[in-house]
Amino acid sequence: MRAADSAPTADSGPFSRHVPSLDGVRGLAILAVLAIHLLFSNYQSTSRVVQALLSVRDLLWVGVTLFFSLSGFLITGVLFDTLGTERYFSSFFARRCLRIFPLYYGVLLLLLLLTRPLHMDWHGQAYRLWTYTPNIPFLNEWTDNPSPYIELRHFWSLAVEEQFYVLWPWIVFLLGTRRKIFMATIAGSALALGLRTWLALTGQYPENHALPFCMDALLLGGALALLVRSRHRERVLRWGAPVFIAAVAITLVQMLRSPDFSWESSFYLTTVGMTVIALGTTALIAAALKAGSLAEAFFAAPILRFFGRYSYGLYVYHYSIDRSLTMPLRTFLESHGRSSALSILAAAAVVLAISICLALASYHLYEKHFIRLKRYFPYRRRAVPPQPARTTAATIV
After folding, report:
1. Do the Cβ atoms of 322 and 330 come closer than 8 Å?
2. Residue 363 DSSP label
3. Are residues 156 and 242 in contact, defined by beta-carbon separation less than 8 angstroms?
4. What is the pTM of this model?
5. Residue 10, beta-bridge partner list
6. Which of 18, 134, 202, 301 could bond 128 through an S-S bridge, CB–CB 3.0 to 4.6 Å?
């Protein structure tokens, strides 16, 4: 029976309750991104212990991969649960726009208005940001910032997610059944691995910022959403922690064996390594969903849920604050006799505090007024669930 055969019922969302642990997963993701940016320093150290810490820090870009896996999980779950219901597309796209566009385009509009006063130069590339295309290789990946104090290069990941949000609902709708959608997630993940491997074997620069080359994280998250809505739910959740630990172990071993473990130059990392990491981040979500587990308790911690709630604003704002303040603060502290390590940590703490304040103000004074409008675009839930064993999910950000 196709999903469309079930009668829809009005509901505020496709899930019966909020899952705090998934907010915590999002919180861990943003903390990883904040750490790699705010703690940026030298790449090499004569101390083996410090060098190991630097290598781990430089791997914290996996926070973006975790964001992708979580987005794939949540979005696929919503799309599958509402298949065949009234206003399937309009509700989904309206709710996504109300959550994403106000902050994204609000920031771009403000910067555009400040272009002349701040003498910014967009290098003729501003349209790339306005159209969510700064990550598309054939347009020459967007890397120039309009000002030394404004950092927008990290918007590539927002472009990846937006492109996924535009394409994936149509694919899910056309495929229509759990089995076909699941096979599409596996095929798409294999395609991403194949494309990255082809680039590596032909000596071309990796294009890990483009959707076709990084969609395995999004699609593996989608595969998990389908599995936890099936009779395999408990088995999948039980294997979440072991698979995550295995992925971490494999990645760390490869890191220690390689003198250059960069996504730009490591053959392993830019090919199968990215998929291993995507499997690991997806497995971490599964572990967080397992009721009564240590992972669930860890991710339900209030501090992680706090960062998860405001992760979008933190992601958008923090990098520009970092560019403006981090180096001046470090220079000031070092000139007053503070050690390099202490200066790095102190500057990071200041930038983090300012970023949190700005994200809080942005959410409560601006973003949440748009979010409230979601009530006019309720999801419709089928009266009969796809499978007896259902899952729940955190509120989508």
Report:
1. no
2. I
3. no
4. 0.91
5. 380
6. 134
